[in-house]
């Protein structure tokens, strides 16, 4: 999701979210010059677990502790495309909890390897729709129920991880745009005023598309001013451009956000300050994103400009 700032219209506390507000912002110089607006990326890939989801991981565990849902020596169970799991694995090690992760088996090997290295017990399961009882989230929920002193942190419907929204938003100075990949329902949901949840295609981005409108997003939909649908071709090209032009090595969701930031700059006209989130680094996807064979298997070879193909060095 693309945000131009951070706060809450509904009086959520700012102080607890201080790190989120103060995370490093990087000005993307070339894209800023091209658009005539300042485009910044929040460097969430610099977090301890390497992604924006470290924040969510910390808050869902703190929330479970505050509600008495987990006691010392307990187990945290979560369904995740990987990033929240990696954050949870760090938090659990620090706090002495066991960490059990269910994830779709379509996710990159790098994330599975890292989770296991951090001490998590990982169950890659077939990727099936949310309404199927075998969906990774439901399997995580059942596992947590089946053992003593365990909590399913339920990241997608857990309001304790809702982001604060910029104060300027309530004063009409800030606009928030949502950036959505193919295969996700959020673009059509927003554009149809909540009537449609159309879903077509799939995406090379991992973990950011949604097949449903989750509880942690629903109440904040009204804060969104516009939505942008970003094709994979644009996201892949931007991964390579960011590496070449800005010296930044980030994954497909960050690239998707930056493409959206550029489109937003074009839509709003020059002289704006636009902030988006650089969600995570490319390291955890590099066997895919920089593999000629994998890119070809996705039919995306032509998305990479000729002069940037030199970065696709893996077979
Ligand atoms: C880069 C990225 N990957 C994945 C996710 C989804 O979280 P998870 O990996 O835990 O499913 C998000 C959520 O914002 C994200 O920003």
UniProtKB/TrEMBL annotation:
Recorded catalytic activity of this chain's protein: O-acetyl-L-serine + hydrogen sulfide = L-cysteine + acetate; O-succinyl-L-serine + hydrogen sulfide = L-cysteine + succinate
Name used for this protein in its record: Cysteine synthase 1
Function of the protein: Catalyzes the conversion of O-succinyl-L-serine into cysteine, the last step in the cysteine biosynthesis pathway. Can also use O-acetyl-L-serine.
Recorded GO CC terms: mitochondrion
UniProt subcellular location: Mitochondrion
Enzyme Commission number(s) of this protein: 2.5.1.47
UniProt cross-references to SUPFAM superfamilies, sorted A to Z: Tryptophan synthase beta subunit-like PLP-dependent enzymes
Tryptophan synthase beta chain-like PALP domain: residues covered: 26-159, 170-280
Keywords for this protein: Amino-acid biosynthesis, Mitochondrion, Pyridoxal phosphate, Transferase, Transit peptide
Claim: Acetylation is one of the keywords in the record: no
GO term, biological process aspect, one: cysteine biosynthetic process from serine
Gene3D superfamilies (alphabetical): 3.40.50.1100
Species: Modicella reniformis
Pathway: Amino-acid biosynthesis; L-cysteine biosynthesis; L-cysteine from L-serine: step 2/2
Major site of localization recorded for this protein: mitochondrion
Cross-referenced InterPro entries: Cys_Synth/Cystath_Beta-Synth, P-phosphate_BS, TrpB-like_PALP, TrpB-like_PALP_sf
Cofactor dependence: pyridoxal 5'-phosphate
GO molecular-function terms, A-Z: cysteine synthase activity
């Amino acid at each position: 999701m693309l945000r131009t700032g951070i706060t809450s219209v509904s009086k959520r506390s700012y102080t607890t979210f201080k790190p989120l507000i103060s995370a490093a912002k990087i000005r993307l110089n070339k894209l800023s010059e091209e658009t005539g607006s300042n485009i910044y990326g929040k460097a969430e890939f610099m977090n301890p677990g390497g992604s924006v989801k470290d924040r969510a991981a910390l808050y869902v565990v703190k929330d479970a502790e505050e509600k008495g849902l987990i006691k010392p020596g307990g187990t945290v169970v979560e369904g995740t495309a990987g990033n929240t799991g990696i954050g949870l694995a760090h938090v659990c090690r620090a706090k002495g909890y066991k960490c059990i992760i269910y994830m779709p088996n379509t996710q990159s090997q790098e994330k599975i390897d890292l989770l296991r290295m951090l001490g998590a017990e990982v169950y890659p399961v077939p990727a099936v729709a949310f309404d199927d009882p075998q969906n990774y989230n439901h399997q995580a929920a059942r596992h947590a129920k089946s053992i003593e002193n365990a909590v399913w942190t339920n990241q997608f419907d857990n309001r304790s991880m809702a982001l604060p929204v910029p104060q300027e938003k309530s004063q009409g100075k800030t606009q928030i745009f949502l950036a959505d990949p193919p295969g996700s329902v959020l673009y059509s949901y927003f554009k149809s005023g909540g009537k449609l949840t159309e879903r077509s295609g799939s995406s090379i981005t991992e973990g950011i598309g949604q097949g449903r409108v989750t509880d942690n997003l629903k109440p904040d939909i009204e804060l969104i001013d516009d939505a942008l649908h970003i094709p994979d071709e644009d996201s892949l090209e931007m991964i390579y451009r960011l590496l070449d032009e800005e010296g930044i090595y980030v994954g497909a969701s960050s690239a998707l956000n930056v493409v959206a930031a550029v489109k937003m700059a074009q839509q709003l006209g020059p002289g704006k300050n636009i902030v988006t989130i650089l969600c995570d680094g490319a390291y955890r996807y590099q066997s895919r994103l920089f593999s000629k064979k994998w890119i070809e298997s996705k039919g995306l070879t032509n998305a990479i400009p000729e002069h940037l193909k030199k970065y696709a060095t893996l077979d």
